Amino acid sequence: MTEQTKLWEPIYQELGVTTPPFDEKPLSVYVEEHAKKFPDFPALRYFNKEISYSELNRLANQLANVLLGMGVTKDDVVGFHLPNTPQYMLGFLAVAKVGCAGSGVSPMLAPAELAYQINDANISVLISLDKLANSSVLAMPTRPDCLKSVLVTGGADYLAPGELVLPSLEGVQVASFLEKMSQASDEFAQADVHWNDTYLIQYTGGTTGAPKGAMLSVRNIMRCPMTQYVYEPIKAGEDIFITPFPMFHIAGAGSAVAGLVFGGTAILVPDPRDLDYICDQMLATPPNFLGAVPTLFQMLLQNEKFHKVDFSKLKLAGTGAAPLTSDDRTKIEAVIGKDKLSDAFGMTETSPVYIVNPAQRIKASALGIPVPGADVKIVDVETGTKEMPIGEPGEIITSGPHVMKGYLNLPEESEKALREFNGKTWMYSGDVGFMDEEGYVTMSDRAKDMLIVGGFKVFSVEVEDKLNNLNFISNSAVIGMADEDRPGNDIVNLFVELAPDAVERDHDEIKTEVIAYCRNTMSPYKVPKAVHIIDAIPLTAVGKIDKKVLRDSLKA
Q: Residue 461 is part of which domain span?
C-alpha cells in the first residue's frame, strides 16, 4: 500500500460521498444564523420544555455577558459540571461567543478528582448543579487557587425554578445562575475566534496515570459533525436528535454540537439510565437520529416502550464506545429497521470520530472506514514507522483536521502521541487493528491496559496509582474480565499484594477498606468489582507486572 493509496475512496464513490465544505466558524455563529433563518424552530427539548433557536441565542448572549462580568477573558477556561441540561448547551455557546475554552467536568468525579481537573485545566469559573456544588465541590480536599467563581444552577431551572442552596466557598464568588442571567443583557457581539483557538479541554485517561486534558480546537470540534454525517445528510429546521451520551464525554459533546450545527432539535437526556424518559421522548416525537452505546441499546431492547416507538422516520442510529455484537445488531435492527445502524469509532484526542461504518455498506465485524478528510494507516507497533501490509495487524494511527492540538501542559506526552510520519502529523492511538483491501479497519486488541465499563474507558494505571496511597498495599494490578451479561464491557478486577506489616490483617476487612477508598477517590465506573489478595504480584523478567499471568488466573 503506497502513501497515495486510500483504499476506502471507491466506497465514497459508490455511496456518492464527497468531503463537505467547511466554514471555519464557531458554534455560536451557526446558532445565530439558525436564529435568523428559523427563529421558532426548537433547538432543545428538555422534559416538556422547548427552547427555540432565537431564545437559545438570546440566553447564550446573556451567559456570555455573565462570564465577561465575572472577568472571563479569551485566556480563561470555564468548566461545565453538569448533566445534560439546557445550561450545558448554553455553556458550549457562551464560551464560543467569548472565545475562551470550555471543559466538560464529569458529575461522577470524586472530590479529589474534581479538584485535580479544575487545577490542571486552570478553570476560573465552574457552572455546577446545585446538588454537586453542595457535595463534590464542597468536599474537595484542597480548593484550587485558579477557581474564582461558581455559578450554581438547578436541574429544574428551565422547568420550574425553585430556591437554591448556595454553598459557602472561602475566597470563591458563588452566585445563582438564573439570578445572574436575569441581570445580563441578551445582546452580545461575537468575539473574533481563530480556527486553531482551543475550544474544549476534554479529559481522558491514559497509560501514565493521571487524566490528561486534550486541547481541541474550533476546527477539531466543528469539523467532526460535517464528516460524520455525510452518509445521512441532516435537514436544518426539520430533523430531531436524541443522544443520551453525557456531554462531559467527548461523544456526547460531539453529538450536542452536531445537533446545533445542522439546525436540528436536540432532545436532552439528563439521566441515560432513565429508560422510560428516553422512550417517552421518542414516543412523543419520533427521532430522525438516535445515538447510544451498546449497553444502552441492550437495556432499551428490554423496555416495552422502545418497541412501540415509530422509527419510520429514523435515518440513522449511531453507536460506539464499545463493540456491538452481531446478535445485538440483529435485535436492534428488528426494532429500528434495516440499514440504519452505524458504528462510529474514535477517541477524545480525535474530536472524537474518525472511522465510521456506513449503515448502507456495513461490515459488521469491522470498525468501518475513515471519514472524509481523515487519513488512517496501520503501522508496526514497535517503531510506528513501518506501514503494515493489508490484513496484518499494527497500531492504528490517524491524521487530519480532527486530530487534537496536544495535551495541556504535557509536552512529553504530546510528543509521544503526535508524531511525524511521511510528512504529516499523526495521532498514535495505542489501539491495534488491521485494514482490509477495501479500507475497512478491524480492531484486534484494545489500547494497552485499557478496560471499557458502560462505554467509559478505565485505564489500569490510573487506578493502580491511586492505590499507592494506601500504606498496607505493597503492589497492585487491575485486570479486565469480559462481562458475559454486558457484551463489550469489562469487569474491573483488582489484584493486591499486601505490605509485610499487613499480611496478618483480616482479608475481608482489607477488601472492604479498599473498595471504600476507591469509591471515595474515583468515579464509580472505575471502582473494582472484585478484589483478589495474593501473596505476590507476578513480574516479568524485566520487572514489569506480568498481567498475562493474572489474566490466566482469572480465566481459570
A: 450-555
